């Protein structure tokens, strides 16, 4: 039961990591010059907590917390509609 609640967040996190890697706005966040650099992705995921400009709607697609918030809302609506 708990795994089914966590699975969407794991999926969204993986989707976010692939999106920022190949995004035209960002790109090469966690794989640079032939090296795997996970610290870049981690820094980007927590950056909205440090920089208020990341909450601008134009940057929501690269704001990890927005992805998590939208996933949470989607999951609540899905549970409510059952």
Radius of gyration: 14 Å
Question: Residue share in helices?
Answer: 55-70%
The coarse silhouette is: globular
Main sheet record: 2 strands, antiparallel
**Average pLDDT score:** 90
Strand order within the widest sheet? Answer: 1-2
Structural class by sheet pairing and helices: mainly alpha
How many structurally independent domains?
1
Given the structure, what is the number of helices?
A: 3
Task: Give a count of the beta strands, DSSP E runs of length 2 or more.
Answer: 2
Give the terminus-to-terminus CA distance: 16 Å
Strand content: under 5%
Low-confidence stretches: none
Q: Name the helix and strand elements from N-terminus to C-terminus, one letter apiece.
A: HEEHH
Secondary-structure blueprint:
Elements: H1 2-22, E1 31-32, E2 35-36, H2 38-46, H3 64-80
Antiparallel strand pairs: 1-2
What does this structure look like?
The chain has one domain (2-22, 40-80). The protein starts with a helix and ends with a helix. The chain has a two-stranded antiparallel sheet. The protein has helices at 2-22, 38-46, 64-80; strands spanning 31-32, 35-36. Helices cover 57% and strands 5% of the residues. With 82 residues, it is mainly alpha-helical. A hairpin with a 2-residue loop joins strand 1 (31-32) and strand 2 (35-36). The protein is built from three helices and two strands. The mean pLDDT is 90. It is globular and about 45 Å long.
């Amino acid at each position: 039961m708990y795994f089914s609640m966590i699975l969407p967040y794991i999926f969204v996190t993986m989707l976010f990591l692939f999106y920022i890697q190949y995004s035209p706005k960002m790109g090469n966040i966690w794989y640079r010059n032939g090296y795997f650099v996970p610290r870049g992705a981690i820094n980007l995921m927590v950056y909205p907590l440090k920089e208020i400009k990341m909450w601008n709607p134009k940057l929501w697609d690269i704001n990890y917390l927005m992805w998590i918030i939208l996933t949470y809302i989607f999951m609540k609506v899905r549970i409510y509609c059952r």
